Amino acid sequence: MQSRLWVALAPELQDQVDALVTMDRKLRAVQVIREGVDGTSRPGLHECLALVAERYAVLGKRFHRSPTAPLDLDALTAKVQALPHRPAAIEAVWDGDSEGWFVLLLAITLDPRAEHHLAIVQHGTDLRLFNGTVPPWPEAEEATTVGRTLAERLGVPFHFASPQTPDNEAPRWWDTP
């Protein structure tokens, strides 16, 4: 059965959405859906995401986020060196969204107290939990290896409170003694 929103889209927009889904361009497909409905009946983000997920299923594709590219130590070093303040630490922290867990690599400054985004590391969705393919979490291993090397290069500590298990409430570097 086709959703009300799918039926409301013009055939050329349906073709465009399916082409984007085939290329695994979820966000662009959502944008096409939102812009394709005129007036006050414009669908919300969740409704558009649900339709994109539906189209993935209809087209026989898995709705997942592609793994991030491997971290580049030299590019990360340059990114940290471009910050307005010297970092006090490099930190890896878990975060997640509706598609699964990922690790953020951050540069931490104390004056001012701030975190500066360096990279996101994700190697799959939480479907891996049901398939039994994690742990170990490859994104945690990559963030630990590269983060530790980056911290050594900069002469600052590296902190990752929960490399074995996703935990977005684990203690942060500035909260540890």
From TrEMBL:
- According to UniProt, the name of this protein is Uncharacterized protein
What organism is this sequence from? Actinomadura rayongensis
Q: Taxonomy-wise, where does this protein's organism fall, top ranks first?
A: Bacteria, Bacillati, Actinomycetota, Actinomycetes, Streptosporangiales
